[in-house]
Amino acid sequence: MLLVASQSCDIANNNVDTDPYIELSVARKIEESKGHLTYNKNPRILHTYVTCRTSDGDVFSEEILELKAFERIVIQKEVLAELQPDPDRVLEDRQLKSYVAWLAARYSRPALPTTFNNLIRDADPKGKLRNKVKKGNEQLVGIYVEIIPDAEIKDDESYNVNLLGLLPAGFVGDSSKAENAINAYADVLRSAGMEVTVATHTEDKISLAMIKRFKRFYYDDLSLKEETPLPPETQNIL
């Protein structure tokens, strides 16, 4: 299955001299989604779903999809004009917004201080704490950090971190899994010698002013082998 990644205005633009190609993501059906790969939590892999109309016509089901950031293709716009979208499969609004944010995160995810990254890597070199965090991360739609200072520090200094876990807007269920997950993240940071405060809120309870203070925390990006040298592009990026 292919999902169109290009913006709708770019698709509609009929000037093929300036905008000749359409970009698409390869999507593969899977049996079960993993919570830590949903809602743009991992910039390299996304688990999402499409709503499908069955042969009944009025009955709908869901197909779970896995997308990988590097699995994209481009086709000429004229080729797309000869194709028709599947009328029985729809990417619902929330999943569409998650897909768009995931595409953007490949290039725009925030850079965090190298010292901050290295402290976490040294405290959890084999990823045991990271794996523990993954298991409780299904309810959260995002984890954000405010790092004080947001800069490199000396050996005799330490970071203060505000850690924020976001639940879906309007969430009214049992949030204990989300709270356990955010506390597990806090344990990772504390094991790295940081002072950490935690909070969990729904998306609709957080002001724009507050969220601007925070950066999205892609802890899954810090998945490097202890004996492997850090590639240059990961020195400042989680």
Give an overview in words.
The structure is a single chain. This protein has seven helices and nine strands, in the order βαβββαβαααββαβαβ. It has 238 residues and is α+β, with helices and mostly antiparallel strands. β7, α6 (176-191) and β8 form a beta-alpha-beta unit. The chain has two domains: 2-108, no CATH class; 114-234, Beta Polymerase, domain 2 (2-Layer Sandwich). Strands 1-2-4-3-5 form a five-stranded antiparallel β-sheet. A four-stranded mixed β-sheet has the order 8-7-6-9, covered by helices on one side. Helix content is 27%, strand content 28%.
Q: Which terms would index this structure?
A:
238 residues, 28% strand, 7 helices, 2 domains
